[in-house]
Each structure stands twice: as structure tokens, then as C-alpha cells.
UniProtKB/TrEMBL annotation:
Keyword annotations: Copper, Disulfide bond, Electron transport, Glycoprotein, Membrane, Metal-binding, Signal, Transmembrane, Transmembrane helix, Transport
Gene Ontology cellular component terms for the protein in this record: plasma membrane
Presence of keyword Coiled coil: no
Keyword Glycoprotein applies: yes
GO molecular function, one term: electron transfer activity
Chief place where the protein resides: membrane
Phytocyanin domain sequence ranges: 25-124
Membrane topology of the entry: Single-pass type I membrane protein
One Pfam entry name: Cu_bind_like
Name this polypeptide is given: Phytocyanin domain-containing protein
Organism: Digitaria exilis
Signal peptide feature range: 1-24
Transmembrane segment boundaries: 146-166
């Protein structure tokens, strides 16, 4: 039966590529507290993992606050360049479409200097998957690494053979 073979091949391929997959996450900045004064966003960000494809959501009562993405230097100085795009809806969504550092501050009054600022590091999907895997302790010996590599290779070859049998 060709169709059951196809399903098997698909399953084998899915297993071979499973480690690379993790679902996108929507992060409410400040969780239920939202985007406001008197909250430590550095501490908040330390407890989260951000990866490409995730979304940041800044929730606040407009017009009390705003959200402005700035450079690292402007983040440190709480400076907002004139050309900046200012988000003002009170429910601002920012897609994390690339890996690396990103900096956001509130543009109202001295809010940024008073701590209304958040810095995050966006991981690639591969980095996020690797970070999610339990840390080996003690670190695997080279022999174990070779074995793990062999298992992956066998899985991949199995998937290819299964696919070849069908197509
Ligand atoms: C915020 O939390 C960070 C990390 O936990 C800490 O180092 C920092 O001192 C805190 N900042 C304030 C203003 O409490
Ligand atoms: Cu503010």
C-alpha cells in the first residue's frame, strides 16, 4: 500500500527534523503587570527565552506610555533619535524576525531613566532548541558524541531510504 508507505516516510522525515522545531511564543512584556513604571524588566527578561518568530506584546494604558525601539547606545542613554518610530496603541506587537539584541524604551517623560526599558536577546530556532535540551552532566566524552552523531546519521539515512521506497 503506497499510502501507508508514504505516511511512514513522512513520519521518519518528521522525526529526523524534530529537534529543529519549536513553536512560536507570544511574550507579554512584564507578564500580567504589562508595560509600566516600577517594574524590573531586566529581571523579567532574564527569566524568558526569545527566539526568531516569537512576538513581544507591550500592554499599557495609552497615552501614559509608548514603546520605541532604539540602539544599544540610545538604550543606555535613554535617548530617542528624531527618526524613531513610536508605538502608541497600548497593545503594541513587535515580531522578533531576526536573531540578535534588541532594545525598547518608553518615550514618555523620564520613564526610561526610571527603568521603563527592556533589552532582549533573540535566539535562532537552532540556538533555542539547543538551550531547551537538558544540559549533559558531565559533558559527553568524544566517544558518546560520535555515537550520537551516528544515531542521527542512521536516522537521516533511514528517512531518505523510506522516502526513496515511496517515490
Ligand atoms: C533588576 O533586576 C536585575 C537582575 O535581577 C538586578 O541586577 C537589578 O539590580 C534590578 N534593578 C533594580 C532597579 O532593582
Ligand atoms: Cu512610560
Amino acid at each position: 500500500m503506497a499510502s501507508s508507505k508514504l505516511v511512514l516516510a513522512m513520519a521518519a522525515l518528521a522525526v529526523a527534523f524534530l529537534p529543529a522545531f519549536t513553536a512560536a511564543t507570544e511574550h507579554w512584556v512584564g507578564d500580567n503587570t504589562g508595560w509600566t513604571l516600577g517594574f524590573n524588566y531586566s529581571a523579567w527578561a532574564e527569566t524568558k527565552q526569545f527566539k526568531v518568530g516569537d512576538t513581544l506584546v507591550f500592554k499599557y494604558n495609552e497615552p501614559s506610555h509608548t514603546v520605541v525601539e532604539v540602539s544599544g547606545a540610545d538604550f543606555a542613554a535613554c535617548n530617542i533619535p528624531g527618526s524613531s518610530k513610536v508605538l502608541t496603541t497600548g497593545n503594541d506587537q513587535v515580531t522578533l524576525d531576526k536573531a540578535g539584541r534588541r532594545w525598547f524604551i518608553c518615550g514618555v517623560g523620564a520613564h526610561c531613566k526610571n527603568g521603563m526599558k527592556v533589552k532582549i536577546t533573540v535566539l535562532t530556532a537552532e540556538e533555542a532548541a539547543a538551550a531547551a535540551a537538558p544540559a549533559p552532566s558531565p559533558p559527553p566524552s568524544p566517544a558518546v558524541k560520535v555515537q550520537a552523531g551516528l544515531v542521527q546519521a542512521v536516522l537521516a539515512v533511514t528517512a531518505v531510504i523510506a522516502a526513496a521506497l515511496v517515490f
